[in-house]
Fold this protein.
Amino acid sequence: MNTDELAFVNRQLAGMLKSGIPMEVGLKKITESMTGSKLKAQLDELGSRLEKGQLVDKAVVGLDLPETYKRLLALGQASQSMPKVLICVADYYERIGTLATRLKGLAIYPMLILVCGLIVSGLMAYLSVILKNDLVSITQTSEGADGRAPWFSIYGSVWFSVFPMCVFAVGLGLYSFILRSQKMRKYFSWKIPMLRDAALAQYASLTEVLLNSGAPLPEVMGMVSKLENGSAMEADLKKIEQSLSEGQASYEAASSGCKTIPGFFNWIVAQADEDVVAGFSHASSIYSGRAENKMEAFLHCFLPVNILLIGILLLGFCLPHLAILTDLLRMIDQLGGMG
């Protein structure tokens, strides 16, 4: 779902609510001006449910909207400060939109490599099948079966042509599975440094938004832990929530002993003392910058690695052909000498 569009819609809706326009009417007016999209269809359904008298927390159930967004809407209803919450929502999605877009762009690069590798290896396999029999039979006729170059035993194998294509096909399948599986995405988001920094930046930004919406810190930790269900950070968030609920006075004390959330992150938040919102805002800025710097480093490394991989692939294809062509040239020289 387009986060920029979602942010724009919520900022417009907040302005309408401040002007006294009911939420269901505002949603109807906004969706009328939207082009056909997944977001338009879901907001249309939300507006229809609100017109029927459903409360926001019930109306969002079953809609294909981000879980974070649905919880924030329910929080706005509970706190009776929906315009303020909607502005916070717009700020949040605008903030993470750029980072999320860059991450999606980075995810495309390995996909392109795998697709291009599959196409190139498939073309090489096709050419090998066409050329192999003719070239080998010519050289064998000239030199005799016992005089074959050692390349023939390798090049004549079907696996030589098919193996690179199989490698790229398996890699493409696994990568597609990881991208489509939410569980796998959450797992790898804590294994790759730039994804881990991006996840921490999103956690800090979301916590800041929830606190600005009026929710107390223990409740915020509980909400975020539910949203992070299945991720490596879930256990730490539950521990912080429990410590705060049991009377820990500060986030710094409650977050001590976290296994996944870095101590540096918690230290940044704690530097704001009692102004936890400012602490999370600072942590969000720092980790967003770290994630973007690591993305830039990845892009700088990506091109030379890409060239190296394609070069190795082409070299592996060309060497057997060069060996056979060398034999053909030698055969031609021998025939010329006999003439």
